[in-house]
Predict the 3D structure of the following.
Amino acid sequence: MGSPIVLRRISLASLVANIGIVVTGGAVRLTASGLGCPTWPRCTDDSYVNTPEMGINGTIEFGNRLLTFVVGFLALAALISALLQSPRRRSLIRLAALVFLGIPAQAVIGGITVLTDLNPWVVGLHFLASIGVIAAAYALWRRVDEPDGRKVATVPAPLRTLTALTTAVGFAVVVIGTWVTGSGPHAGDHGAARNGLDPESISQAHVDLVFLMLGLSIALWFAFRAVGATAPARATLVLLAVAVGQGVIGFVQYFTGLPEVLVGLHMLGSCVFWTATLAVQWSTRQREAGTEAGAAQPARPQPLAAVATR
């Protein structure tokens, strides 16, 4: 349990599970089961579990609630494993604790969505909370194999700025995507309200941001190749492939009336897109061997000549 290999595997399982529960949560919405359990934290006023009278919608909603315990168990296992590492690494403990605390926070926001009859803005916040936990889980998985020394840039400062801008635009794409969802027909329940935004206008804004993201990613790929930054260029190429795939799914679902299967795939793609964006950001720096005390020192960018020889 205290082995870095075990922690790495648990962290990866936690990351996958947090992406998976987003997809199952999407299935709840796409099957109009959002109020299958009409209250929270109980499923009904008298029961914590669904009843036969609630039908398939109650089963789907309650099943998704049960998956929260699976995700929480993996997060707790990662935290215990981080505490058992020898030597103990505070960076891993902090990240594992952040993932673990994010699970009940997600559950509470999920409960609020039910108590507000699937308010589309709260539903969107629930998805964004999951995006935050995914980011923490990804960071934990990556940090297991890193030393705790000083953080050092592997690309020139202008490219780090461009990478940060690309990450910010990627996050904006995800946020606006929740607004598009909140304006569309898949409300999670036949009587749930919509956010009042014009679906066509907000979808166009979403598409515009996607094109900006693609342009920035292409520019990053050429720039990384120009300075010989192989790992960042490879990560950016993966991001481009994911973004194009997401764009294709988005266009097809829009022009085919938003079929449930494609909407579900698009939700999965959003999580993969976000992790691919994080991978590009992560690839622009590394840590030197050393103690965690050294990690607090400011990072010094390497000369361009040194970067180009990598």
Observations:
- Confidence is low (pLDDT under 50) at residues 293-310.
